[in-house]
Amino acid sequence: MTETKDTFGVGFRPQHYGWVTTHNPPEVDVFEIVSENFMGVGGRPKYFLEKLRENYPILMHGVGLSIGSQGPFDPLYLKQLKDLIQWVEPQMVSDHLSWGQLARRNSHDLLPIAYTHESMNELVGKLAYLQEFLGRRFFLENPSAYVAFEDGDYDEAGFFAELLKRSGAGILLDVNNLYVNLKNLGQNPEDFLRALRPQDVGYFHLAGHSNQGDVLVDTHDRPVPKEVWELFGKAKALFPDRPAIVEWDGNIPDFPVLLAECEKARAYRPNPNVGSVTAETIELTGVSRSNAINYSQFFEQIVRPFGIEENGTRNLKGDRPTPATTGLKVYNHAYFLRLEEVLLDYYPALAFITEEEGFRYLVAAYLEVCPPMGSSLKAAGAGLPDFLKNLLSEVDYDFGVPLLVLGDLAALEWARVEAYTADINAAKLTPELIKAFSPAMWETVQFKLMPTVKRIACSFDVLPVLHAIDNEDMPSPPVESASNYIVYRNDSFALLEQALDERESRLLAAFEGGATLIDACDLLNEQVGFYDSNQITYIAGRLVEWSERGLIMR
């Protein structure tokens, strides 16, 4: 693996997995991955990451750590992060100096922290724990922000400088965010640059932003603008020989466009004309309210359906270039838009059936009853099928389709998500192994489904509906009939579905939790101790057939 000193690269995004790992572009020195895209995930993403790490050094950058949230880290998140680090062996690991969770409810956004002594002390402790747990130095990105809390004991530059010094952490210096915060909050980027020690700067981020009138939004959906390039030149003069990564996450173009941005970064010359300013600490003007009060008031506005309250900005600075009301609306809009996009990605057929207005209503109703909990963005969509099937009273909208049909369709789509992303930690049972079983083994071996296999029981026959939408055809109304299906991923990462009869479904249900041949006989017979030879032959035959398709775990 090569050294990342003074190297240039781009983010590794799903739209480019195949192209990058086929062409291995020599113009790119290093790739950066989004950690959460690969944490606890198998299948196609893991396959392409394995190919990438064979040819390039990798930087890991996360969006879900939520280090500024009050309370302990999510232990499952940390375990999956550490497992990925040990497998990938990245050059550096980073996330944002931000928060996103309150009482386990997750906004899945990068919310600004309050620059208070309370925040400082808690973050120093959490960084000590994190770096010891991971066994390496951790890097924090300076985030973009659209509001600032009224209470504060530091400015951003002074806070970062002291935090890095006390914690031993480093900084991922996002140049675009420096410019965005200059325009939104009046924060001088040169103050920030001068406050940093060279030994604390890990690497640079470069990205584009959108100008929405009185606010700049860090959208990563366009080329790096001139003003950010100029600021990058100043940063390089102070911190030479650092990797630089171009980020592009929305309206993602063909890969050659990213290569061109990467080459611009490589050709850009340092600009030593940086003012000799230093960071200053804001004098405390009164007793700061606790972070708990500030964060709870702020969070309440972010997740509020249909907009913020009139007095929702009462704990935010009102003297910034971007009005506090405008900035708060950015966060409120982003919360619902982000989760709507995630659910649309998971449930495209459901969105097609309910149409744009209906799907938007459904998302809002679902989030009100089942808000995102924990660190996983994927988990935000897990409860939608049950919501549609079991909480009919919470949905006051005529979709023109029974909610149970929508629930069945959602269950089938969610099975696709789980089968596609399942990580395989066990070998498959082959037909040859089954045929070689001794009689004693047939009585003792437990058969279990692979993690890539999902069984679904529905009240309507919705599989033809899903296939029609896949083919961009208009689906016919489904028949109301008890229907059972399996969804599974094959070795080529293709998703396959099959309808099951009642007997097959009951047998697969037994193998979901693990069952011997005798257990399966008992379940199918609904009595213990009756072992019909025809039944045993049937079960053995199904096991051989399913093992040929890679459905049974070894």
Question: What distinguishing features does this structure have?
Answer:
554 residues, Outer Surface Protein A, domain 3, globular, single chain, three-stranded antiparallel sheet, 3 domains, TIM Barrel, eight-stranded parallel barrel, alpha/beta
Describe the structure in your own words.
With 554 residues, this protein is of the alpha/beta class. The protein folds into 3 domains: 8-267, Alpha-Beta Barrel (TIM Barrel), CATH 3.20.20.150; 291-394, no CATH class; 428-553, Outer Surface Protein A, domain 3 (Alpha-Beta Complex), CATH 3.90.930. Helices cover 44% and strands 14% of the residues. The protein contains 20 helices and 17 strands. Strands 1-2-3-4-7-8-9-12 form an 8-stranded parallel beta barrel. A 3-stranded antiparallel beta sheet has the order 14-15-16, sandwiched between helices. Helix 11 (324-346) crosses helix 12 and helix 12 packs across helix 14 (403-421). The protein is globular and about 85 Å long. The two termini are 35 Å apart. Mean pLDDT is 92; it is low at 275-288.
Summary, kept brief:
This protein is an alpha/beta fold. The protein has helices at 17-23, 43-53, 75-88, 117-134, 156-167, 175-185, 189-195, 226-238, 255-267, 291-302, 324-346, 348-369, 384-390, 403-421, 431-435, 439-444, 463-470, 502-512, 517-525, 533-548; strands at residues 8-11, 30-34, 58-61, 93-96, 99-102, 105-111, 139-141, 170-174, 201-206, 210-211, 216-217, 244-246, 448-449, 453-460, 480-489, 495-500, 552-553.
